[in-house]
Write a structure and sequence with these properties.
Layout (H helix, E strand, L loop, with lengths): L3 H13 L2 E4 L4 H6 L2 E4 L5 H9 L3 H9 L3 E3 L2 H10 L2 E7 L2 E5 L9 H5 L30
Parallel strand pairs: 2-5
Antiparallel strand pairs: 1-4, 2-3, 4-5
Helix pairs in contact: 1-3
């Protein structure tokens, strides 16, 4: 069982280090085999936190469902042609990318207040990554 306090801490850190990047900034990592595609229906930050926490059960279930996998040649070609803007978070040694994120429907309580104050938004500098313990993760063998 994964400790929820650790997951919450990882989510908070990853949330601060998530950014949008163009494919042209990411293609070299595709060549290295370190880009992992996260399906739009998953929460990118939660996926990153669970990988960092070594939650093999959750990660394997997403992989078996086809929701988490190494970026394919077809995706890379399409994203290259359009220089697609992707959501990105780094959980070393992996770079998780997400395209076409589906926003969940807000609950009644969330609909009454904004989730984020737009005046507080910031840009995450390139090169930011989650500082989590190095974990051997053979599931996405390079």
């Amino acid at each position: 069982m994964i400790n929820e306090k650790i997951l919450a801490s990882l989510r908070a850190e990853l949330n601060e280090q998530t950014a949008q990047m163009r494919w042209s900034e990411l293609d070299r990592f595709f060549a290295n085999g370190t880009l992992i595609s996260v399906a739009g229906e998953l929460d990118l930050i939660d996926v990153g936190a669970r990988i960092a926490a070594d939650d093999k059960e959750a990660v394997l279930s997403w992989m078996h469902a086809g929701l988490l996998y190494k970026v394919t040649d077809e995706e890379a070609g399409s994203w290259h042609a359009q220089d697609t803007l992707l959501w990105v978070v780094v959980v070393k040694p992996w770079i998780l990318v997400q395209h076409g994120r589906q926003q969940p429907l807000p609950t009644a309580q969330q609909a009454r207040r904004p989730l984020v104050d737009a005046s507080l938004s910031t840009t995450v500098p390139a090169g930011c990554y989650c500082r989590v313990p190095q974990v051997e993760w053979p599931l996405f063998s390079r």
